[in-house]
Design goal:
This protein has helices at residues 34-43, 53-56, 126-134, 149-160, 171-179, and strands at 8-15, 48-51, 88-92, 104-105, 114-120, 138-141, 164-167, 185-190, 217-224, 230-236. By secondary structure, the chain is of the alpha/beta class. It folds into two domains: 1-47 and 162-241, Dihydrofolate Reductase, subunit A; 49-160, no CATH class. α2 links the parallel β2 (48-51) and β3 (88-92). It binds NADP nicotinamide-adenine-dinucleotide phosphate (NAP). Residues 13-14, 21-22, 30, 52-55, 92-95, 146-147, 168-173, 176, 201, 205 line the site of NADP nicotinamide-adenine-dinucleotide phosphate (NAP). NADP nicotinamide-adenine-dinucleotide phosphate is lined by residues 13-14, 21-22, 30, 52-55, 92-95, 146-147, 168-173, 176, 201, 205.
Length: 241
């Protein structure tokens, strides 16, 4: 598959000096930097996001809502509702955990509502797919059991016409996409904090069963921001754009 069949993928995140994306204890350590994070995000000029299920829980409805019974046959075809604008947020949810109020999401720094698209697999419970259809929420299949992100991004480009997308974690999602060497750029806010706990997740939490393959990036921008934060931009050497 050639690179032109995929959108440009920019991983935009903030980490502590020890590369952690949260405290790992539940205590929020990023709040003070959130407005700076979104200010830089605005400069990246993206209209689409891909975000992991754990992170998207903050935008979801009550998780205990029970799924209704299936009313009609659910096949293995992508379900894409007509999309009112070109702002989208894709989230992975292979087990059908999240519940939604609506088929759009609001981000505090974006004027438009973002169309919600859930990435599922063939093994995702049919009750969940039926629930998404009832809510008029789009979903696309990303594989059988595990998600193949090449397939996902190819669909994101071909079915939604998206050329550029921000990947905003968490670490497990970032790690899976890094594993497939699909990240073109990293936009990193380096915060003047140290967590110093092994149980705090890192920027990339790849699978330890996979072979060690070091990815090399080129530094393209360095900028000192307010509150001792540094903005670093890196380009993937292999995915020249
Ligand atoms: N510092 C920052 O800039 C920043 C930004 C965003 C988030 N965060 C923090 O990150 C934390 C959450 O991170 P996290 O790493 O625990 O979770 P996450 O990345 O948000 O969620 C893990 C996701 O990875 C999916 N996944 C990854 N690879 C897969 C594959 N090959 N096949 C199937 N599914 C795959 C999982 O799917 P299933 O659910 O279907 O298993 C799940 O949706 C939160 O505390 C959040 O606040 C920090």
């Amino acid at each position: 598959m050639s690179k032109t069949e995929l959108p440009q993928i920019i991983c935009h995140m903030m980490t502590t000096l020890d590369g952690k994306i949260t405290s790992g204890t539940g205590e929020n350590i990023l709040d003070d930097y959130f407005s700076l994070y979104t200010k830089i995000e605005d400069k990246l000029n993206a209209k689409s996001w891909i975000i992991g299920r754990v992170t998207m829980q903050a935008f979801a409805d009550n998780l205990t809502i029970e799924l209704p019974k299936i009313r009609s046959r659910i096949d293995d075809k992508d379900y894409i509702v007509s999309i009112p604008n070109d702002y989208n947020v894709f989230t992975t949810d292979t087990k059908g955990v999240l519940r939604w109020k609506d088929n759009t999401i609001r981000f505090s720094n974006i004027k438009e509502n973002l169309n919600l698209v859930v990435i599922v697999t063939i093994n995702t419970p049919k009750e969940y797919l039926s629930y998404l259809q009832d809510k008029n929420i789009s979903y696309i299949f990303g594989g059988e059991e595990d998600i193949d992100f090449r397939i996902v991004f190819k669909k994101i480009k071909s079915k939604f016409g998206i050329d550029r997308i921000l990947l905003e974690g968490g670490g497990i999602l970032n790690g899976s996409i890094m594993n497939e060497n699909l990240i073109d750029q990293i936009s990193l806010l380096l915060l003047p904090l140290v967590v110093n706990r092994t149980d705090a997740p890192s920027l990339f939490e790849g699978d330890i069963q996979k072979d060690l393959i070091i990815k090399k990036f080129t530094l393209t921008n360095i900028e000192k921001l307010e509150n001792d934060v540094v903005w670093l931009k890196y380009l993937n050497k292999l995915n020249k754009i």
